[in-house]
Write a structure and sequence with these properties.
- It is globular and about 55 Å long.
- A 10-stranded antiparallel beta sheet has the order 4-3-2-1-10-9-8-7-6-5, covered by helices on one side.
- The chain has one domain: Beta Barrel (Lipocalin), CATH 2.40.128.20.
- It is built from 2 helices and 10 strands; from the N terminus they run αββββββββββα.
- It is of the alpha+beta class.
């Protein structure tokens, strides 16, 4: 009897460790920029945060910028299967992207082109973005390199996962249970 309990217990522990350690990282969360650790060259850094929802191969990113008491949002939707994805914003800007998740799930590489038209002029901007999630899932490094209309030095932004949103979710769950 004792041997059976020990064997079942050991099998359970092995199964749980496989489930826990076999799961791929997830980029979901609210991320706040660390201005001191980020390197954006001579650009003045605004308040910047990212709200990321990562489910399966879908990666939705809302970029929120605050400057001079004004807030602006950009929403990007990616599919991390390496296939081309085309979206058109409300302002008529066409965004073509290819996103690929690394085999370990910790790095997303995105090639994105934005094409906007003003009158008869077409403006095309292409960037390569590499998002890297830290081992503990609390730090997100985003390296962006503009490749067109002209190649520029990479910009490196460091984000930390916001704890405030996590606390709020826990409080909301507690309220629902009552």
């Amino acid at each position: 009897m004792k041997k059976t309990v020990i064997i079942i217990g050991a099998a359970f522990l092995v199964l749980m460790s496989l489930l826990l350690y076999g799961a791929k990282p997830n980029f979901s969360g609210n991320w706040i920029i660390d201005k001191k650790k980020s390197d954006v060259g001579e650009k003045k850094l605004s308040e910047l945060s990212l709200s990321i929802k990562h489910k399966g191969k879908h990666l939705n990113i809302t970029e929120i910028t605050k400057k001079d008491k004004k807030e602006s949002k950009r929403i990007y939707k990616y599919i991390t299967d390496g296939k081309e994805n085309v979206q058109t914003t409300k302002k008529g800007i066409r965004i073509t992207s290819k996103a690929k998740l690394s085999s370990d799930g910790k790095i997303v590489t995105i090639n994105r082109t934005r094409v906007s038209t003003k009158g008869e002029k077409e403006k095309k901007e292409s960037v390569t973005i590499k998002m890297h999630l830290s081992e503990d899932g609390k730090t997100l490094t985003v390296e962006t390199t503009q490749v067109a209309p002209q190649k520029k030095s990479p910009v490196k932004q460091i984000f930390h996962k916001s704890k405030e949103k996590e606390k709020q979710k826990e409080q909301d769950k507690k309220k629902k249970k009552k």
